[in-house]
Amino acid sequence: MSIWEYANPKRFMDWTAPVMRVAFAVAAACLAIGLIWGFFFTPEEARQGSTVKIIYLHVPSALMAINAWFMMLVASLIWLVRRHHVSALAARAAAPVGLAMTVIALITGAIWGSPMWGTYWAWDPRLTSFLILFLFYLGYIALWAAIEDADTAADLTSVLCLVGSVFAILSRYAVNFWNQGLHQGASLSLDKEENVANVFYIPLLVCIAGFVALFLALVLLRTRTEIRVRRTQALLARAQRA
Amino acid sequence: MLQVRDLRCARGGVPVLEGVTFDLNAGEALILRGPNGVGKTTLLRTLAGLQPPLDGTVDYPEATGAYASHADGIKTALTVTENLTFWAQVYGLTVPDTVFAAFDLDGLRSRAAGTLSAGQKRRLGLARLGVIGRKVLFLDEPTVSLDAFSVRNFAGWMRDVHLAQGGCAVIATHIDLGLDVPTLDLTPFVAQADATGGSDEAFL
Amino acid sequence: MKALLWRDLALAVRAGGGFGLGLAFFLIVVVLVPFGVGPDRSVLALIAPGILWVAALLAALLSLDRIFALDFEDGSLALLATAPLPLEGVALIKAFAHWITTGLPLTLVAPALGFFLNMQPAAYAYLLVSLAIGTPALSMIGSFGAALTVGLRRGGLLLSLLVLPLYVPTLIFGAEAVRRGVDGTGAAAPLMLMGAITLGCFALLPFAAAAVLRINLR
User: Is residue B19 situated within a structural domain?
Assistant: First the structure.
């Protein structure tokens, strides 16, 4: 049996129900352990004091904000090539989750930035790229919402996701170029991984695992809702013709 | 010239017609009939290649088909001659002088299309078919807003020019064109409630 | 193809074509800026290239929905889609016609408006060149956005939301080229990068635009 069999909506509903429950449980466990460990049982960092602990929300959400878009890109490609409806609906379901992750990353970044850099917002390349990513999510979600016919919406948003991905990458490098022109060297940018010592690293990994599981659970939940909506519409359309 | 086999087509993701089968030879035309919503426009758009069929085949020689919809595709800021010249050039042709007489546009050549009446615009829209030199025509309600005289005029062009020169046409219309051609009632081809292939099928 | 280009240009300059509206908008935005930021000549000189680039971008945005929407409404787009012209060519030609009627005039007028904003003399040539290289990309990206939203009743606002993020790289390189030109730090790199984006857009986006047009015409 081919792996694509699992993309059939009915089969998808069957096998995702237990997976979703497990994902929610893993997310709750990992986030509880990781956040409590991170907030209360790690030492305060010499330079940053306790403010460093926001890293446990900031880094995982930023990571998922980008990975959510990547997942949407893959799902869009699968829809365009193989026309599996569930794939298009999963891309649709992931977008608001990715948007929420982007917003969390921006807000926690601002809260962190205030004591560290003395400002909530700076036009640092990394921050600016996230703001642009936020705009891409908005446009993608708005296009889904604007089109009535479900398959047309899936097709158009998939092409937008494809073209948008190329321009998002272009923007990332253009923004780097732009800001280096203003301030020599990115003085505000932190290279997180190198700053993080082992005591902070392990709870951070647990938190990242928690965010991945949470993302998976939310996307499955939303995809299942989308499938039920489509099924309702399909049944109504058939009933009207009979 | 035109072969349609077992065609199934959908509107808005739901199958509306299935098992549509017919043949047209050069010089033949077919009138489509059926109540509103039966799928005449859907069928014509599928035949013209604007939307893919769910199933079945449509065959006609490459680069011979042309489609004319409810809308005429007329640019109101251009004159009658400019409108026709544009379409002729898109198809790599020139406007034959006879086309103005055939569609009763002789006195309107240099009028801006925006100043034409609804019937005159429709005649201009139909005159496009006379300049693009295509053999297989798919016409959706070509006689809307035409008076009785213009309808006879159009039917005359269809019979004496287009069909006589070896063209063929599928025409959806509610009125009697006065052409001596077969009609096809689409009602028997309405898709059954359990017809397969709609975009929502996977969800049922 | 030539016939389509001539038709689009004729439609743009005739009554109701909207030619000149974009230019007027460009002028008004630039006139409004000193009211907003104050008449300080040194401040204006500093921000003039950026303002001119953003204003040109918004002026180009203004007429984007006309690229396909009018043809879609009067049925000519469906007729063009069944004509022997490839839809990719239609998208390319229409973007080019849009550039000739908006991007090109904006480019030519921008230096004159730079004068009002007290732009440094060194910046004029860089502004002209950067707009000449960058505005074609704006038209091509915009025609993709217009194709995406052509079937929607009120697609204008959504079109802006979709297209503006795609304009970011072009805007960055365009304004950066002028800034570096004035500083003397070398405008060649941003100009070449922007040229690459423009060429890439013209090479690839017609296919994306034609694909979404076919989907919208279904």
Answer: no
Residues of C in contact with A147 (CB under 8 A): 151-152
Of B77, B85, B91, the CB nearest to C84: B91
Residue in this structure with the two tokens 């009535």, named with its chain if needed: A148
ipTM for the whole complex: 0.92
Cβ distance of C176 and A142 shorter than 8 Å = no
A9, A149, A235: residue with CB nearest B12: A149
Which tokens go with C127? 């502004």
Question: Considering CB atoms only, which of C144, C155, C168 is closest to A163?
Answer: C144
Contact B50/C7, CB-based, under 8 Å?
A: no
The alpha carbon of residue C148 is apart from the nearest alpha carbon of chain A, in Å, by 7
Structure tokens at A225: 């809702």
Residues of C with Cβ-Cβ distance to B72 under 8 angstroms: 74-75
Residue B117 is part of a domain; what is its CATH number? 3.40.50.300
Query: What's the sign of the alpha-carbon dihedral A99, A101, A105, A110?
Result: positive
Q: Which residues of B touch A85 (CB under 8 A)?
A: 199, 202-203
Query: In angstroms, rounded to a whole number, what is the distance separating the alpha carbons of residues B21 and B198?
Result: 19
- Digit-coded pLDDT (tens) for B46-75: 999 899 898 899 999 888 888 998 888 888
CB contact under 8 A, A85 and B202: yes
B8 lies in some domain: no
Q: Which residues of chain B have pLDDT under 70?
A: none
Q: How many structural domains comprise chain B? A: 1
What does the pLDDT look like over A77-115, one tens digit per residue? Answer: 999 998 888 999 999 999 999 999 999 999 998 888 888
CB contact under 8 A, B70 and C75: yes
Size of interface A-C (CB pairs under 8 A): 78
Q: What's phi and psi for B140, nearest 5 deg?
A: -105, 110
Which of A136, A175, A178, A179 is the best residue to mutate to test the C interface, defined by the most C CB atoms within 10 Å of its own CB? A178
The amino acid present at A198, given as its one-letter code, is N
* Cα dihedral value A177, A181, A185, A188, nearest 10: -80
Angle B20-B21-B25 from CA coordinates, rounded to 5°? 135
The CA-atom distances, in angstroms, between A157 and each of A91, A175, A178, A228, C60 are 9, 25, 29, 20, 24
Option in A227, A231, A241 nearest B193 (CB): A241
pLDDT digits (tens, 9 = 90+) for C75-109: 899 999 988 889 999 999 999 999 999 999 999 99
Range(s) of the domain holding residue B157: 28-49+61-182
The residue written with tokens 């398959």 in the block is A151
The answer to whether the Cβ–Cβ distance between A231 and B201 falls below 8 Å is: no
- Asked if residue C142 lies in contact with residue C61, where contact means CB atoms within 8 angstroms, the answer is yes
Q: Residue A191: how many CB atoms within 10 A of its CB?
A: 8
Is the separation of the CB atoms in B129 and B68 below 8 Å?
yes
